[in-house]
Amino acid sequence: MTNPILEIRNLHARIEDREILKGVNLAIPAGELHAVMGRNGSGKSTLSYVLAGKEDYEITEGEVLLDGVDLLGMEPNERAAAGLFLAFQYPIEIPGVATMTFLKAAMNAQRKSRGEGEISTPDFMRAVKEAGASLNIDASMLKRPLNVGFSGGEKKRAEVLQMALLAPKMCILDETDSGLDIDALQVVSKGVNALRSEQRSMLVITHYQRLLNHIVPDVVHVFSDGRIVESGDKSLALQLEAKGYADFDSEPA
């Protein structure tokens, strides 16, 4: 059996004096999309922040391997270069930086980390046009400062565009359905589904089953009180929608 793309072993993390992750165990093989569902405050977004290397979180126990390599020993930019991508619940605005400029800088940073030369302008423009076509992204949107004045749908489409251009091996989508109407959700989901491949793994974090109607997971995990307490197929998401999370509170892992 090949190693999982992402493997989390007994991960504990705290912020200040509060423990949030309390022994997370998770393995995602290549080609699979896993969903983590849990009520607000269960720690599922903290998991995404810890994986991406956000400051302020202290890892007190456990390890995380990305394609067999220690992830927690890397700086955030090193994690990105190694193939990790986090799509934020609330993408930040960056005034003064055109979206196209940001995308090209991100691509070239990745290429540099791999020892490759900078992408040519024609190749970059072609890649953006191809990746943006299915996301309903037009040239005017790309000329605007990154996420400034973007609608919720535009912000999420811009993130999926980044994901398509950077081609990471491990994608983490933190509540990517937040702020999306049904039309935007369908467009974003179509973009995410187009990126599913045998070489790439995905982790989708949400507390609504509706997202999983559009991005159908291979495995669903229930997150409660800082750890995974139940795993199953997509029918588990329907069970959560019908009954809520109370049945899973304080269950042993």
Automatic annotation (TrEMBL):
Location of the ABC transporter domain: 6-250
Pfam families the record matches: ABC_tran (PF00005)
Keywords: ATP-binding, Nucleotide-binding
InterPro entries: AAA+_ATPase (IPR003593), ABC_transporter-like_ATP-bd (IPR003439), ABC_transporter-like_CS (IPR017871), FeS-cluster_ATPase_SufC (IPR010230), P-loop_NTPase (IPR027417)
Family the entry assigns: Belongs to the ABC transporter superfamily. Ycf16 family.
PANTHER family from the UniProt entry: ABC TRANSPORTER I FAMILY MEMBER 6, CHLOROPLASTIC
Name the UniProt record assigns to this protein: Fe-S cluster assembly ATPase SufC
UniProt source species: Devosia rhodophyticola
